[in-house]
Amino acid sequence: MSAPTAQGQARQILDMNAYRPGNGQSRPVERRLANLGAASVLFYRQPIEMVGAEGAWMIAKDGTRYLDFYNNVPSVGHSHPKVVEAVSRQIAQLNTNTRYIVSVVDDYLEALKALLPPELSNVMMTCSGSEANDLAIRVARAATGGTGIIVTETAYHGNTALVTEVSPSALKRGSLPEKVIAIPPPGAAHFGEDIAGGFRASVEAALAEFGRRGIRPAAFLADSIFSSDGILADPPGFLAPAVEAVRAAGGLFIADEVQPGFGRTGDAFWGYARHGVTPDIVTMGKPMGNGFPMAAMVARPDHLEQFCADVGYFNTFGGNPVAAAAGHAVLDVICEEGLQENARETGAHLLAGLRQVAAGDARVTDVRGAGLFIGVDLADEAGRPDPAFTVQVIDAMRAHNVLIGAAGRYGATLKVRPPLCLTREEAERFIEAFRAALAG
Amino acid sequence: MSAPTAQGQARQILDMNAYRPGNGQSRPVERRLANLGAASVLFYRQPIEMVGAEGAWMIAKDGTRYLDFYNNVPSVGHSHPKVVEAVSRQIAQLNTNTRYIVSVVDDYLEALKALLPPELSNVMMTCSGSEANDLAIRVARAATGGTGIIVTETAYHGNTALVTEVSPSALKRGSLPEKVIAIPPPGAAHFGEDIAGGFRASVEAALAEFGRRGIRPAAFLADSIFSSDGILADPPGFLAPAVEAVRAAGGLFIADEVQPGFGRTGDAFWGYARHGVTPDIVTMGKPMGNGFPMAAMVARPDHLEQFCADVGYFNTFGGNPVAAAAGHAVLDVICEEGLQENARETGAHLLAGLRQVAAGDARVTDVRGAGLFIGVDLADEAGRPDPAFTVQVIDAMRAHNVLIGAAGRYGATLKVRPPLCLTREEAERFIEAFRAALAG
């Protein structure tokens, strides 16, 4: 069980490269800060003004083209013409709520459900992954009668009041509520080589602690690629014993697919499928509409009935026909352009290239991942995670026209997460930029 | 202080006209139910399949054109060409998050802020009014150090876990948490004619009850047109003493403008402005993007800083340039087409016409409202609120090609809420349909 204040520290480190008000900033930066104030989240100490984007590239106002390895929302490629066309066509025709039947919506829901376990047959459409996870926790609590939630220690599951409680990485101060226990990520050093067994042991320790607190478990909530914990993908299957343990205690497994879903891991369409588990609830978001605000929670009808008996739930924008059109176009593009296969193949090429760089530089201590989601650990001369060096590399990558961010407990893991349409040439370009950034 | 179970009853009544599974439903209905399950919210016992919409009209698959008096999202008119054009243009060019500067976003935020009190200078963009209210409650708690929230007894403020707690009308069973007190709506019968004084007394009683519970107040959260409570608009100004009372006790006033905002009340751009009060926090949603999923919370920089010191908040889709383009187009259309003025004038015409109908039918016990937001109370022969009769009128209106819903504690208030582009002819048509529906 980690101390949340440690997570607060991790958060501070992750924020090291964020913009802070000061002298000498440009007018656009001052303007943004006046508009968003303390809630401003500008990236880079000298933020970038963007004017366009296409494929894997973003275009700044000064004409610079940046290779986007950071944003996993425009997953089929920025400004993809098929998604643009679908949104433009539908919004001109009909945009309403789910109080009426619109065939576009049910066509999409059926296409989406065909990709999911058949028992998860009810979909609740929302506007954001946060809303989807907020719902999932309540559905799990209503279905089990328990309240305890297990997450990993640098997890991030969204921004509502409820999901902030299960997102240790968002806490700057304070501690997790009694009903939430954060466990070490899979592969935490003290478990040695047995990642599956070690992770199961962590879940069982949390369940035992809930027992001592007199709290019944409701769910184990995990992003199966463990993005915020530093991208922990291997070995496939390690998640299964942990899921078994929570089920044996009466809890559900909620798969948060906001990060690994929609083909990103290459091996499977959903991250959980790499681990051979069937979740009780699946949530999804970010890449679902390639930037059109949409997300969903998928559950079993009997679980959903319990929740709906307590509360009348309606989401005004959730499941509108424009979102459905965007989402359907995304599924079509992933299939037609073979983006899951591309994630696997170009991802493998990228991983191999980055490992080659690592072999020649002791400061790159690990390169791991699945498909087009790769984590690269950076360390100091003594082999300790080095967030300051990571920020230096991120800045140097920017100077080489590559956008990339960091993750992990120490903020010392590069989060390599380009659009799924990435070409082999673009992967090469990234590897060269990384090599150059390391060279200073 | 109302018993939340009474609100559960109100909710059941409001649901009376909702679709329930059964025999003889069409294939599209069965399909929808298979997709959404218990979370299905289809309107009418025989739901309508829609294929298009324009202006104040929705077009069903069978070719029937319905006058839409129910949905206040497409507030400048369904499929408005200016909004369609703005979304289509921006989504083809750049759709990203607020980690980068995009001038379209700050142009919009400045246009929006120009319509708000100057001290509320920081905007947090979200995807839904629920997310905005979820944030507002947390900002108010962080800013005041208090936790108590006062709402009205049939209030609805959204669907996240936190805002469901302050939405008595969403509760089907269970009770409000200790930190939330629901007060009678303005003008509740037991206060007689002094609406302002009576409502202040209700707020003061809730503050005294918080005192007994050892809870410090954080905020009074209200929709200034009291939509869910049955549309309570008059007299303008009645809200001011209640706001004074909560401020005197150290709490904030959060104006939930999801319903009355963006010109709907005719007298002012925001609902709170009709009451001559300046809120501490303003939230907005539904009509903000005319259907593009977007919402916002606006606050004072010092209040926001308190919240941001505790939690790192980032909203992936919130404040994206496509939402900004949609929102800016909405502001432009409201201004260029004089929609606030139209809401005032066409609304007054509609109100007068409905009062004329009421004068000739004892079952129409009250007609009240502001601009294009009007409540019509329906009663039985003895003058008691009659939800069954209301459902009958709603069904009959549908037969006359008008879509309308109900609100209020008893579900016996017609919620008259057409798009702001409503013409005088369309208003006349509604009045005639209402007259015909009453005639049976």
From TrEMBL, chains A, B:
Ranges annotated as spanning the membrane? none
Name the InterPro entries on file: Aminotrans_3 (IPR005814), Aminotrans_3_PPA_site (IPR049704), PyrdxlP-dep_Trfase (IPR015424), PyrdxlP-dep_Trfase_major (IPR015421), PyrdxlP-dep_Trfase_small (IPR015422)
Give one Pfam hit by family name: Aminotran_3
Q: Which domain of life does this protein belong to?
A: Bacteria
Q: Does the keyword field hold Transferase?
A: yes
Cofactor(s) it depends on: pyridoxal 5'-phosphate
Question: What's in the keyword line of the UniProt record?
Answer: Aminotransferase, Pyridoxal phosphate, Transferase
- Extract one GO molecular function annotation from the record: transaminase activity
What the entry lists under PANTHER family is as follows: ALANINE--GLYOXYLATE AMINOTRANSFERASE 2-LIKE, PTHR45688
The record's family statement is: Belongs to the class-III pyridoxal-phosphate-dependent aminotransferase family.
Indicate what this protein is called per its UniProt record: Aspartate aminotransferase family protein
Organism in which the protein naturally occurs: Tropicimonas aquimaris
Taxonomy, top ranks, is: Bacteria, Pseudomonadati, Pseudomonadota, Alphaproteobacteria, Rhodobacterales
